[in-house]
Every structure is written in structure tokens, then in C-alpha cells.
């Protein structure tokens, strides 16, 4: 069943929290030094506060809903306008209006069922309508789920690598 994609609204906190915890479990199992399973105590309320917070016109929060289960996925994205100093920058994309997908999570039971695709397509369409000419996102290289999703299903290409090093005292 194709999910209903809609704007996030009050009352969606429980579903958002479930999807968020599933994502935390998935990634924490792969990269525990970077990702943790979020504390579930108060998590739905934390999402409700974020849902009720005022958002900028260039910020998008949408959910995927499958009745009767409810919310099974979330996407958060923003339109980034060209940088004022883009003519001095090396990266060409800084001179373009960009869609930046900051968050995409799907509840475990609904992964690989079209929910993530529907959310990404909705965000990309919103970005195009807002003038975006390129979309960017990031994910963990150790994910056998998200790398094929972005590259094979959604048509994204690797552009950069985020490097990380713990700075332990010793």
C-alpha cells in the first residue's frame, strides 16, 4: 500500500518516535561509536514540541502515514539559497539553490516498501517548486540499506566523504 505523504502535525509524535528509535537501533548496530539508540522516555513529547515549533518557509517536515498503523516515516529538508559569497567559493553548488535532506527515517516494518521513496519524491518536488536545482543529503557509508536506496533507487551519487577521528586524551 502506498503511504499518504502529508505535512507533519500535532499528534504525530508517537509515530515519529517509533521510526526514530528504529533508525537508532539500525545504525547503532552498525556504527555504535557514532550512533546511539535514543532514549525513548519523553521522545514522543520531544517530537511534539518540535512539531509545534515555528518553522521557516524554506523548511519542510513531512510524514508518511499508513492507516491504520499511523506515521511510519519522517523527512525533514530545507531549501538553501545561494551563498552571498558564492563567487569566491570553490564549490559550485554554493551558488545554486539547493534542497538539503537532513533527515529521512522509516519504521523498520515498513522499510523497503516504498515509504522512503515516497518521502524523498515529495521532498524533491517541494524543493523544485522552491527553486532548488540540486539535492544533497548524507548517510552512513556502513549502511547496506541506505547506500543502495540513495544511489540505485533515488539516483544520488557520492560527492564527498565525512572523515571522523576521536580525540581521546592519553
From TrEMBL:
<dbReference type="InterPro" id="IPR000182">
    <property type="entry name" value="GNAT_dom"/>
</dbReference>
<dbReference type="InterPro" id="IPR050832">
    <property type="entry name" value="Bact_Acetyltransf"/>
</dbReference>
<keyword id="KW-0808">Transferase</keyword>
<dbReference type="InterPro" id="IPR016181">
    <property type="entry name" value="Acyl_CoA_acyltransferase"/>
</dbReference>
<dbReference type="GO" id="GO:0016746">
    <property type="term" value="F:acyltransferase activity"/>
</dbReference>
<feature type="domain" description="N-acetyltransferase">
    <location>
        <begin position="3"/>
        <end position="170"/>
    </location>
</feature>
<protein>
    <submittedName>
        <fullName>GNAT family N-acetyltransferase</fullName>
        <ecNumber>2.3.-.-</ecNumber>
    </submittedName>
</protein>
<keyword id="KW-0012">Acyltransferase</keyword>
<dbReference type="Pfam" id="PF00583">
    <property type="entry name" value="Acetyltransf_1"/>
</dbReference>
Amino acid at each position: 500500500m502506498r503511504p499518504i505523504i502529508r505535512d507533519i502535525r500535532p499528534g504525530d509524535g508517537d509515530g515519529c518516535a517509533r521510526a526514530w528509535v528504529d533508525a537508532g537501533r539500525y545504525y547503532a548496530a552498525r556504527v555504535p561509536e557514532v550512533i546511539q539508540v535514543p532514549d525513548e522516555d519523553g521522545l514522543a513529547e520531544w517530537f511534539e514540541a518540535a512539531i509545534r515549533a515555528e518553522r521557516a518557509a524554506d523548511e519542510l517536515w513531512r510524514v508518511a502515514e499508513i492507516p491504520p498503523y499511523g506515521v511510519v516515516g519522517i523527512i525533514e529538508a530545507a531549501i538553501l539559497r545561494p551563498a552571498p559569497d558564492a563567487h569566491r567559493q570553490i564549490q559550485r553548488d554554493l551558488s545554486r539553490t539547493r534542497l538539503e535532506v537532513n533527515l529521512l527515517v522509516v519504521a523498520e516494518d515498513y522499510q523497503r516498501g516504498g515509504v522512503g521513496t515516497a518521502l524523498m519524491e515529495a521532498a524533491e518536488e517541494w524543493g523544485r517548486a522552491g527553486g532548488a536545482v540540486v539535492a544533497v543529503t548524507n548517510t552512513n557509508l556502513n549502511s547496506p540499506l541506505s547506500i543502495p536506496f540513495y544511489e540505485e533507487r533515488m539516483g544520488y551519487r557520492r560527492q564527498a566523504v565525512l572523515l571522523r577521528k576521536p580525540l581521546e586524551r592519553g
